[in-house]
Structure formats: C-alpha cells, structure tokens
Amino acid sequence: MGMVAPVYYTADMVRALPDDGNRYEVVYGELLVSPAPRLWHQEVAQRLLVALRVYLEREPVGHVLASPADISWGPDVLVQPTSSSRRSLRSGRSIGLGCRTSSSSLKC
Fold first, then answer.
1. Is residue 3 included in any domain, yes or no?
2. Is the pTM of the predicted complex or chain greater than 0.90?
3. Which residue stretches of the chain have pLDDT < 50?
4. Residue-number span of the structural domain to which 71 is assigned
C-alpha cells in the first residue's frame, strides 16, 4: 500500500483555514500550527513592543507593529511574528525583524 503524498501548503491555503484560535503559519509548504498565546507570552510581547516604540521615538528609523500581522515573502511562506519592525522606506532599504517569545526564550 502506497503512502499518501503530503500536502504542500501555500499562503492562500492557510489564509482560507478557519479562525479557531490556533495560529496557522506555512514555511516552504509545511503547515505549522500553534495554540493561542498564553498570558505570559502576551505580557512579554507587549513589553518588547513598548521598548521598540520608545527606541523608535528617539531614533525615527522605522515603524513597529503589534501582532497578529501576516508576513509573507513568497507563495509558500506566511508567518505571524509576535512583533515586527521595519525600516523606513525613505532610506531605500527595508529590513524586517520578527520576534517570537516562548515560556523560556525570546527568538528574533
């Protein structure tokens, strides 16, 4: 008996999934499912957002956005970082930063 071929997900397929409280992301066709963030995650994310906003008030080099925000850089990539920062378009360059918090670490 043959194996069923795995589904290669696209960003559009993930956007069409039901809003059931889980966070759905796709990275190069692989579907990633995470439960809704817990209270501590939200607290850390808020602190990071405030720190980035304070910095950007002093150094106006970009903007910071709170999640959820879909970020896609291809038809098979769609992620939702905890917060993201993007350099101003005035500089002609665009650099993105996405950070994800977990119970024991902060990954950027």
1. no
2. no
3. 84-108
4. 37-107
